[in-house]
Amino acid sequence: MLKYLPYPISVLRLGASRQPKIFQRSFSSDECHSEDETTVPSNKTLDIKSITNGDPQLEHKFKVLLLETEVLRQEGCRIPSNDFLKEHHWKQLLQLDSKSARRKLLEFTFRVQKKRESQQLKKELKRKERGEKPLVPESQGALIYDLSHNSMLLRVYDSTIDNFHNWRALQASMFGQKIVIDCGYDTEMTVRENSNCAKQLMYVFSENRKHDDPFDVYFCNMKRDTILFDTLKKSIPTMDEPWFPMNVYECSYLDLFPKDKLVYLTPHCREVLYEYDHDAIYIIGAIVDKTNPEPLSLAKAKKEGLKMAKLPLDRYLQWSSGSGKSLAINHVINILLDIKTTGDWHYALQHVPTRKVEKVITKSSTKRFGGRLSFDKDSGLFEEKKEAFWKPKWLNKSKDSRMKSEENNTDVGRQINIKKILND
Questions:
Q1: Topology of domain 165-360, per CATH?
Q2: Pairing state between β 281-285 and 307-309
Q3: Burial zone of 283 (CB within 10 Å; 0-12 exposed, 13-18 middle, 19+ buried)
Q4: Can you tell me the distance from the alpha carbon of 289 to that of 293, in angstroms, rounded to the nearest whole number?
Q5: With bands split at pLDDT 50, 70 and 90, how would you rate the model's confidence at 13?
Q6: Any idea what DSSP says for residue 360?
Q7: Which run of H or of E encompasses 323?
């Protein structure tokens, strides 16, 4: 291990004007550290032993990593400050083997740091603007309707809304249908994929408890001391509290539910879920497979001898070219929530991102159209609507006015013969 550097480090860099610029920094004996020291420059609260778990090889790699980040900072790379880098950042950097991967992670963390600094600056500016507003004295008979002043409505705090949603989730734990999120794929994902997966799991919990009829969600195979658990813990700090309506288990779902009721949802199987079963317990694999396209969920379901099914996406949607058919975990939950309450796949599949869908297969025919079609019983024709599908019915024109406008302007609607559609 290097105990001192007898010479300064000089880095040559070409600027925009192609003129060389010299960045020099000399390490003094106070800044260099021996093998027994456990402090980090400009971050006194960081403990090496908590990061490396007392492993001497990781301690050596950590000190080399400190020198590497300092050299990158001198080269002009976008590296965050040591004060911003926390223990979980250093743990992620220690798990990366290549220098390019560590640099990408540092640049991403740098952008996060600058974004937070910008948000903090905007908050301070708004706070100053609110303080500089001229106030009208109430002695003149004028009431002040503003923040922290008079208001005609009672303020509903965020904590009150959270308590309402938590109570709805508690009701689902007693009377709602159960659903399982299989979190046993953390070893098959990279650091970034684990972080994205934890973010999707946070959305799953948030969007499920806001629904009118939420699921009783079980997070199974959630191992402690993993990137997935630590990242989810930062988003939901109270997830381990006994009063919090979140079911997190390290054991398998086979130990909690009868095997004959379990149905594993995997896009790689042949069975299609045409009819929703309200008595089944569906399992969703918590995996972000951007770099690993292998059918891991299919292999796991076959190994455990579980029933399998996939959503009828190809029957109701036409995928755009170049987009994958994989859906986020929170999108699958939203689809299942709507199909459970409505039984309409056309309505439930609206949660599929529009960037992935080229056209929608309508109920009226087997031909795929990008717009919505309505059937006119008198003329026996389909009419392609130009207005948005969410337009209220009371805003639509009457039949007589619509037929009159079609005679004056042929661009309002396009008449399509029903026989031609069925023949195609």
A1: Alpha/beta knot (3.40.1280)
A2: unpaired
A3: buried
A4: 6
A5: very low
A6: E
A7: none
> pLDDT, tens digit, for every residue of 243-271?
999 999 999 999 999 999 999 999 999 99
- Separation of alpha carbons 400 and 120, rounded Å: 58
Neighbours of 209 (CB within 10 A): 22
Q: Which of 118-127, 205-214, 339-348, 392-401 has the lowest mean pLDDT?
A: 392-401
Alpha-carbon gap, residue 203 to 8, rounded angstroms: 49
Tokens 């918590």 sit on residue: 286
CA distance linking residue 59 with residue 45, whole number of Å? 16
Supply the pTM of this predicted model: 0.65
SS3 sequence of 369-385 = ECCCEEEECCCCEEEEC
Residue type, 118: S
The Cα-based distances of 121 to 79, 111, 116, 118, 127 in angstroms read 20, 15, 9, 5, 10
Beta-strand relationship, 178-182 and 281-285: parallel
**Residue 215 and residue 337 in contact, taking contact as beta carbons nearer than 8 Å:** yes
What's the token pair of residue 211?
């629904």
69's CB contacts (< 8 A; 6+ apart) are 79, 82, 106
What's the pLDDT at 283? 96
pLDDT digits (tens, 9 = 90+) for 206-222: 999 999 999 999 999 99
Q: For residue 198, which of 96, 88, 280, 107 has the smallest C-alpha distance? A: 88
Q: Where are the domains of the chain?
A: 9-109, 165-360, 368-423
Per DSSP, the three-state class of 230 is helix
- Residue 51 is predicted with a pLDDT of 80
Question: From CA 332, how far away is CA 312, in angstroms rounded?
Answer: 12
Amino acid at 165: H
Question: Rounded mean pLDDT of 166-188?
Answer: 93
Contact of 179 with 199, CB cutoff 8 Å: no
Count CB neighbours of 29 within 10 A: 9
